[in-house]
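Following up on my earlier thread - several people asked me to post the actual chain instead of describing it. Fair enough. Here it is, all 270 residues.
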Amino acid sequence: MGIARRYATRLAVAFLASALWLNPIDHAVAKTTDQSDLWWIPTESGWGIQFIQQETTIFATMFVYGPDGKPTWYVATLGLSGNFFWTGALYATTGPWFGTVPFDPSTVTPTQVGTMSFSGQFVDQGVLTYIINGVGVTKTIQRQNLVSMDFSGQYSGALSQTGTGLTCSAANTNPATPASITIAQSGAAATITVQTSADICTFPGSYAQGGHFGQVGGAYTCASGDSGTFTIFEMAVSFYDFRARTLLTSNGGCLIKGYMNGLRQPPPLQ
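Reply from S.P.:
Thanks for posting it. Predicted structure:
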C-alpha cells in the first residue's frame, strides 16, 4: 500500500504499542504520566505510600511505623522540579481524636519533620527518598495491584502519532485519525484490533499490569501486509473510556510514538 496507507496502518498499530514494564523505552512523561496510585515494595508488605497527582503537584500519604513500632503516617505536597522529579516538605500532624464530634480542624497541627522526593523515570517504578528527623531512607517502589483490570470492549475514538527515523516519511506524523478499537482480554493474554479507513491491524500479546495501568506487548500484522513489533502502555480504562500511550517499530525500521483514546461503545446505561 502507499505511504499514507502504511502510516494509517502503523498509526493504528502504534496506538497499541510501547515496551514491556521497565524496558528502557518504557519511560514516564513528567507531566502526562499519572503517578496517582498505591505504591509499595512486594517484599516489604506492611507499609506503603499513596500518590494523588493533579497537574504538576502530587499529594503523598505515607503509612509506616515509628521507632516504637507503632503505626504512623506522614504527608507531603510534592511539586514537579525537572523531568520525572518531584520534591517537597514532609510533615507529621496531630489533631483531635477521630471520634470527636464535631471535628475541629483548628486543633490540627502540622510539624515539618523533613523532606521527601520521588523520581519516576519509568511508568510503574520509581525511587522514593525521604528524611525524617535526620534519618534518611531511599526505596525503589512500584505500583501495587489491587484488582486485575479488564480492558475488554469496543471503543470509538482517535489516534495521534509521530514517526521518527530515516525510513519514516511525512505521512508517519498525524495529529489525529478516527479509529475503531476492539480489545479482547483473557488472563495474561490480550488481542487488540484497530480499524481505520485505510487498514485493519491486529495486535496479540502478553498483558501485564502495574497499579491502575495495563500494558500489552508483542508482534502485529495488518491486512495491508505491514507488520512489526508493538507495545501499548499506560493503558487506563473506566466504565466509559479507554486511554493509552503507544510505541511501534515496523519491520521497515520506522519508530512511531503516540497516544490513543476512545469512548466505550455502546455507551453505558446510567
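The radius of gyration is 22 Å. That should answer part of your original question.
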